Structure formats: structure tokens, C-alpha cells
Amino acid sequence: MNNQKSKIKKTVKKHIPKDWLCELRILYRLTMETLYDIKRTGLVNLVIVTTMAAILTIFGAFFRTTLSVSSFAHELGNVLEVSVYLKQNTDANVVKNRIKEFEHVENVKIIPKETSWVNLKREMDLPDIDNPLPDTLHVKVDKPENIEFVFKELKTLKSVEDVSYAQELAKRIQALNNIVNTITVFVVIMMAILTITIINNTIQLVIQSRKDEIEIMRLMGVSNWYIRFPLIMQGAFYGFSGSILALLPLNFVQNGLNNVHQFFMVPAPVYAQGIVITIMFSMGILFGAGGSFLCIKKHLQV
Does residue 267 share a domain with residue 199? Predict the structure, then answer.
């Protein structure tokens, strides 16, 4: 029976001509209703917006830091090279060409044993003996996480005497990157829970204060979306306002991280601030509206 009524409703709606002026009036009324609900909430709005701003600031700071740490990890990974020591009487060019065919290998540089010996004699006072050093290849890998894979592949070559790289440094870089990424994900989850809880409680109070009014609208046949829309928009407003308020402390974080990048001469991530602000606003509005929607589903049977 309900399905039949729904089909009839849809059929009737299709044949009703759309009056765009009327649609604009409805949108205006809904906007004014949202503003009225916000005004009616009073000083509670300030508490909600500042709380949202604090949550979003924490998220923005961690997310921006994650981008910087990833940038540092990438730069440090780029300077990490695998040193390959060749056996005596091995053609370095043949081995170089073979290694360049390996997956994840970006570049291979030959360091002749004569060059290594001259450099070593400059640094140390050595006796006049024959050069004991082997020809060396410096292998650059495309990403830090692929160093271990290339390292194992190089060890399988018969013409290679030994292979080495700064293994501990590479592991620490990767571990730091993983830790910061995990913390950021945790902050996002906590942000979602706190935001939805705060908005949920606020919208519940609004629903209770408008209980009689909403009941009258139901009896008059007002559509569900007309009742829901102002409440969802109120939640989105809190997310948007909190994001605007969070911009100021986030700017201090951005400047601090830029100074760190300049000190270590590591380029800052491109468009990092713009990405953080866009995601922060999106998540603030999404979680705010989402919190309202969940509250409506729970406390308002429309």
C-alpha cells in the first residue's frame, strides 16, 4: 500500500510544473529558519564553534605536520644510496647496465677504485702500497621503502663482492613516517566522534525546543526534507565557522614548519597549506552536517 502511494506521489510530482521563483522562496525560508534556529541556540553556539575550532586546529596541525614529515622522509630517502663493491677484474659498465634494469633503480654511478684511493689518501696518512679498494657503484633507488628490495636483488649478482647502505637510518625514516600517519588517522577518528557527539547533543536540544512546531508542520503535510534541512544546515554552519576560527592557529603552525624546512634546506610540500585548509573545511562541514543528520534519524521520526 505504501509503495503504491509513493508511486502515485512521484507520478503527480512529475506532472506538476516547476516554479523556480517558488523554489527560491522555499530556499530563502529554509535559510531564514536555519539562522533563526542558530539565534535561538544563543551562547551555546559560541561554545560549539570554539570547541569545533579546537578540534579542527588539532587535526589541521597534525595533518600539516604529516605532509612535512613525509617531505623530509622523501628527501632523506633520495640521498640514501646503496653502495655496491665489485669483485676484482669485473667490468663495472657491464654490471651498471645490468643493475639499471632492476625495478625501482633510478640511477647508477660508477666510482673507480683509483678515485676512491686518491680520496682516501687525502683523508688519511697511508703508506705507499698498491690500491686494495674495489670499483664501487652507487645505486640510487626511486623511493626509500624500496631500498630493501633493491638491496636483496643486488646481493644475488655474482660479480658483487659486498653491498651496504644506511639501513638503520632508512628504517627510522620509514618508522617516523608511519607513526605520524597513524597519529593523524587516530586524530581524524577522534575528531569525527567528538564533532558528531557535540552536534548531536545540540541538535537534540533544538528538536526538543521545536517539538510542538515540528508536530504542527507534520499535521499540515510539510515534507520531511523541509523539516530536516534547517537542522542539517545548522550542523554544517558549526563546522564551517569552526574551520574559519581554526585558520589563525593553523597559520602559526604553517609558518613554524616553513621555518623548519628553510633551516634544513628541504623544500616544503607544494600547496600544503591549501590542501590542509580544503580538507579541514570539507571535514568540518561534513562531520557537522553528518552529526545533525544522525541526530535527526535518532530523535526525529521524519
Answer: yes
**Spacing of C-alpha 258 from chain mean position:** 18
Q: Name the 3-class secondary structure at 137.
A: strand
Same structural domain for residues 188 and 288? yes
d(CA 145, CA 175): 10
For residues 101 and 133, membership in a common domain is answered with yes
- Is the Cβ–Cβ distance between 137 and 125 less than 8 Å? no
C-alpha cell of residue 82: 646503496
Residues 6 or more apart in contact with residue 281 via CB below 8 angstroms = 239, 240, 243
Could you report the per-residue pLDDT of 217-276, keeping only the tens digit for each?
777 776 777 778 888 888 888 889 999 999 999 999 999 988 988 887 778 887 888 899
Phi and psi of 100, rounded to 5°?
A: -60, -20
Query: Would the pTM count as exceeding 0.85?
Result: no
Please give the residue range of the domain that contains residue 139: 81-165
Q: Is residue 96 part of a domain?
A: yes
Instruction: Tell me, yes or no, whether 17 lies in a domain.
Output: no
Specify the pLDDT at position 292.
84
User: Which three cell numbers, joined as nine digits, stand for 172?
Assistant: 627510522
